[in-house]
Amino acid sequence: MADHRPIGIFDSGIGGLTVMAAIQQALPKERLLYFGDNAHVPYGPRSLDEVRAFSHAITRALLAKDCKLVVIACNTASAAALASVREAFSTVPFVGMEPAVKPAVEHTHTGVVGVIATVATFQSALYASVVERFGSGVEVLHQPCPGLVKQIEAGAFDTPATEAMLRGWLEPMLDRNIDALVLACTHYPIVRPLIERIVGPGVRVIDPAPAVARQVERLLDRDGLAAPTAASNGSMIWTSGDPIEFAAMMDRLGMSYSEVRAAHWQKGELNLP
Ligand code: DGL
């Protein structure tokens, strides 16, 4: 069996592009549809209920575009909504983001690992369950990074202000002797070079995007949904923000796409024209 339908991917903004890039690399034949909810970014300071409502509406819009699988390329939205979209759309395969505590715990020699994510992610049951399942015997330090997503969305990938913010969060964790750092927000890999400069070579920085791409591949194979031949048309992007700014950001990140279009929210529903 083979299936030409696209894969839907979404995030609050440009963060999910780090996951999309990994999927493009692992599965070059697949056609990808991406939605960035820039009208509502950041999701991190919002309530899990509000992010859950956005996630359901975005899923409905992607399924209306005939997506065969949906990737929630946002830790915050996965924490808020992965379980409930799976229940509401029970015939659709979903892949979500889970803080990569397991590989961090497998790596550590100091017995101390750090996790950075949004406030909402740390408040979720998903985060608690990951730490419970994989964190035993190890100290897991968690550090929310309020304001970092805003800096990244503004293109401040390596500015003195972004560096000062990151130093304020990472240096106390370095003082506690972490040797692994989990990037549990899909925006953060965009500033990975800066993070690596701050933490130095003794700390392994973990971005789960390649593992998420492998999980997408496994589900496509399991369900006979993989595309048999490369799609003739490239990835389509929608943003509820400014499509020109979004396209400029994709160019800066070196990503390929065929078009970026504006999408609009209306009375809680999303339309992808
Ligand atoms: N990229 C997101 C995440 O992985 C959302 C961050 C935000 O919008 O605050 O959590």
Could you explain how this protein is built, in words?
The protein has 273 residues and is of the alpha/beta class. It has two domains: 7-97 and 210-271, Rossmann fold (3-Layer(aba) Sandwich); 101-207, Rossmann fold. It has helices at residues 17-26, 48-64, 75-88, 101-107, 119-123, 125-134, 148-153, 160-175, 192-199, 209-223, 243-252; strands at residues 7-11, 32-36, 69-72, 94-96, 112-117, 139-144, 180-183, 204-206, 236-239, 259-262, 264-266, 269-271. Helix 1 links the parallel strand 1 (7-11) and strand 2 (32-36). The structure holds D-glutamic acid.
Can you summarize this structure?
This protein has 273 residues and is of the alpha/beta class. The chain has helices at 17-26, 48-64, 75-88, 101-107, 119-123, 125-134, 148-153, 160-175, 192-199, 209-223, 243-252; strands spanning 7-11, 32-36, 69-72, 94-96, 112-117, 139-144, 180-183, 204-206, 236-239, 259-262, 264-266, 269-271.
What structural class should be given to the helix and strand makeup?
Answer: alpha/beta
- Report on the biggest sheet: 6 strands, parallel
Number of helices: 11
Which fold name corresponds to the CATH topology of the largest domain? Answer: Rossmann fold
Spatial strand order of the main sheet: 4-3-1-2-9-10
CATH class category name of the largest domain? Alpha Beta
Binned, the helix content reads 40-55%
Question: How would the blueprint of this fold be written?
Answer:
Blueprint (H helix, E strand, L loop, with lengths): L6 E5 L5 H10 L5 E5 L11 H17 L4 E4 L2 H14 L5 E3 L4 H7 L4 E6 L1 H5 L1 H10 L4 E6 L3 H6 L6 H16 L4 E4 L8 H8 L4 E3 L2 H15 L12 E4 L3 H10 L6 E4 L1 E3 L2 E3 L2
Parallel strand pairs: 1-2, 1-3, 2-9, 3-4, 5-6, 5-7, 7-8, 9-10
Antiparallel strand pairs: 11-12
The structure holds D-glutamic acid (DGL).
